[in-house]
DNA sequence: ATGTTGGCTAGAAGCCGACAA
DNA sequence: TTGTCGGCTTCTAGCCAACAT
């Protein structure tokens, strides 16, 4: 194809405009490994849809508090903003290793669309980056106790760690791995016991106490492209971290988010947001192409069946089946006609930990296609799907879409200042698109 | 006097309006001991002057970042707001034990002054609350090392701790003290060694590691009114704590503060702020009476000599002499005619750690009085003042002011809805006062 | 294949007075 | 009066294989 220039999602510096928060030197593969398999950041230079409501909910989730407060209305702040994504930098909290991304967004002013709006010459999301070799293990009580070391899953040790010299008795080596802040950690890796197993001994307890890990937290190791060992952590869903920064009230935080977005929207100036994938209940910066694909391709209806990806314990993915049980605004007063999490859903398997009961249209894969009532059997996967098994290949529906509407692919390439080439709907100007949004808020929705 | 009802500065609940941040169960004496001897919170129900600029600077100080960013202008947000102080609750950060206060402020709308604006029937600042017995010690290397315990200053142990049974050999007892979160800490208190000294042994190291204390940090003990032992900590000025909350950009924080204040000012609705006394470079919520006393009583001039209180190492106070070297806005663009920190000053003693080079008029005590060139010798303290000695009794100038203008006392009592009784200038209505503020921003200033 | 436990040991934590400052 | 140190003791951290699941 035309993927001659590959723009990395991460820009190594963050020194523009309002920034200066902190320089990003984070390894991108490690960041994504920590963020989880479902998190993908929109490519720099592309158009995205920003939902202030979802942004607020991220703040709400990081406190343990609901919004519903005497927050001023921003009548000029719509429930969604189309923005140009200027930059994305990856970060990790110095205290907790929590990963987050800093994005600079510039609201697109319809009047300016024919000027040099899309002056960045390209923005590309490479979907075919190889998933790096990695493993993820949830720490047991024994792993975190002071009594011993870390028991390494056999597969993991053989896949990720440098091979041991098995002529030694017992086989031992020194392991070195860098964390998100590029700090080096050293472990003694030994293969011993009856039956034999891989263990990390000396150095392990320093790591556990240094990172303040507890049973239930997870550790993950990956090898980067230079086959250097990297390590990250994921904490269990403990009580929200930032009880409050002791310097800023929750109210001010909410207001700050909304005021910043409203001001940026009014002036078409860039603003800065933080996206914390493991705190946010749902993404709130969506590639415009993904949004359009979902809104204009899916026949949405009550009772509709769909599938949706979730993350597994071991950082894999699997799909769950669900049914749309309601279509309504999450906050009909403040965010009327927002499409962010406006679907109430039920799940086929109620078994394991409660799943979200509100999702957005672009998060789900309808099982009834807009063009076929049921996909022809020839497109179905050969082996029967097993519940609980990893399910990583693209879904049948994805393939269907790609055949039916090749212009809606996952790869977006912006080559000039034309709206439609930046992810917009084909044949529509941005002004037309936004008029559609205002006049008919849920265009192709059919309520049975 | 008429101090029949004594309103505590702390309201035990915080469940009003936009609140719900966290319930405050903090011991007021301990909070103030941790905050330091110079921190006094305005009484609930009184009028205060709020400086958005100072509030911004508190946020700036808690990050390591200057403001100067693409922050929208709030043309309707003046450099100072007169507010009714609805509530004050005391808090302590769960992670760091940092103390801070949550204040609910309602901007006073001049049009409403004759209505039920001051419906709270009183608001009283009792200045004669006895300073509780306390001591404060900066931890040494030995105190924080794992090699031993804590060496208790002799005076401190005898004044604060329960008396030992000196018939025992050696005298020992178990000590229990609660921290700001009401957690109980237990220490073995022993009097031994050659020469004899008070030590905390068993339990001490748990405390040090639990609170993550290092040499240079301070610990303080007080006895509350029930002679229960309480303990607090004060950290040395390490790098700012909240590097950023990983969920909110600095920009949004600044904007949030300003937008919240602007919205509240426009609608005369309450808003919430956090005041962190050990982070803020200077108070930004000033009792209106204190402000007026300073603005209308002090003949301000370049080269003026003054004294100002500072906190000592051991949490005492002493005064330093200084000279006004300049009068200018700290930020003439954004905060024109703000009186917050608009005095540039130099200090007589340049010796110990750099003192602030910008202060506000209400923080200083002019040495040349408006009524006397030099106070008559009869008012002078009998014993000569020694530099470096604690200096706790009211200054001569304070006494002079109290004799000359008894209505400007430290105790403010609001009995009805009259502006002047709530701390305003005698004989002036609030509208007149605000007009003065707008027309002649620095009324009695004389530039030589 | 891997979580937990008892046994053992090396080394850190921690109590003490000596000795300054 | 109190900070630091050497000496000594105690106890936990931490390595090991056995055993259980």
From TrEMBL, chains A, B:
Residues 135-237 form the TF-B3 domain. It is found in: Nucleus. Residues 1-23 are annotated as: Disordered. It comes from the Eukaryota. Belongs to the ARF family. Homodimers and heterodimers. Auxin response factors (ARFs) are transcriptional factors that bind specifically to the DNA sequence 5'-TGTCTC-3' found in the auxin-responsive promoter elements (AuxREs). This is Auxin response factor. It comes from Zostera marina (Eelgrass). The chain holds residues 6 to 453 of 1067 of the full protein.
């Amino acid at each position: 194809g035309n993927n001659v220039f590959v723009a990395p999602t991460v820009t190594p510096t963050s020194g523009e405009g309002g920034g200066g928060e902190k320089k990003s030197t984070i390894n991108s593969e490690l960041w994504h490994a920590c963020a989880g398999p479902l998190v993908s950041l929109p490519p720099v230079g592309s158009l995205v849809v920003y939902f202030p409501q979802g942004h607020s909910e991220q703040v709400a989730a990081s406190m343990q508090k609901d919004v519903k407060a005497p927050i001023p209305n921003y009548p000029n702040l719509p429930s969604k903003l189309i923005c140009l994504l200027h930059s994305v930098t990856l970060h990790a909290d110095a205290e907790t290793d929590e990963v987050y991304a800093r994005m600079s967004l510039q609201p697109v002013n319809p009047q300016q669309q024919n000027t040099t709006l899309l002056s960045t010459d390209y923005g590309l999301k490479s979907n075919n980056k190889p998933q790096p070799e990695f493993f993820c293990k949830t720490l047991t009580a024994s792993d975190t106790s002071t009594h011993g070391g870390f028991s390494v899953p056999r597969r993991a040790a053989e896949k990720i760690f440098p091979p041991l010299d098995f002529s030694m008795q017992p086989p031992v080596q020194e392991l070195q791995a860098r964390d998100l802040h590029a700090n080096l950690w050293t472990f003694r890796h030994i293969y011993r016991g009856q039956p034999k197993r891989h263990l990390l001994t000396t150095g392990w307890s320093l790591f556990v106490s240094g990172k303040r890990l507890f049973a239930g937290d997870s550790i993950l190791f990956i090898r980067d492209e230079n086959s250097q060992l990297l390590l990250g952590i994921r904490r269990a869903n403990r009580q929200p971290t930032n009880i409050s920064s002791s310097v800023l009230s929750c109210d001010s935080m909410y207001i700050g988010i909304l005021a910043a977005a409203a001001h940026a929207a009014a002036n078409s100036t860039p603003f800065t947001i933080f996206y914390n994938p493991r705190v946010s209940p749902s993404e709130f910066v969506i590639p415009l192409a993904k949004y359009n694909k979902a809104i204009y391709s899916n026949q949405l209806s009550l009772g509709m069946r769909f599938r949706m990806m979730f993350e597994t314990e071991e950082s894999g993915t699997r799909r769950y089946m669900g049914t749309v049980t309601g279509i309504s605004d999450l906050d009909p007063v403040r965010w009327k006609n927002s499409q962010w999490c406006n679907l109430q859903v039920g799940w086929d398997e109620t078994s394991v930990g409660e799943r979200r009961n509100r999702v957005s249209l672009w998060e789900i894969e309808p099982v009834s296609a807009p063009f076929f009532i049921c996909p022809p059997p020839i497109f179905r996967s050969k082996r029967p799907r097993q519940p609980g098994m990893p399910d990583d290949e693209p879904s049948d529906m994805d393939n269907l879409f790609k055949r039916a509407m090749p212009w809606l692919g996952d790869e977006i390439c912006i080559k000039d200042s034309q709206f439609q080439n930046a992810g917009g709907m084909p044949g529509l100007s941005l002004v037309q698109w936004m008029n559609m949004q205002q006049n008919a808020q849920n265009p192709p929705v059919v309520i049975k």
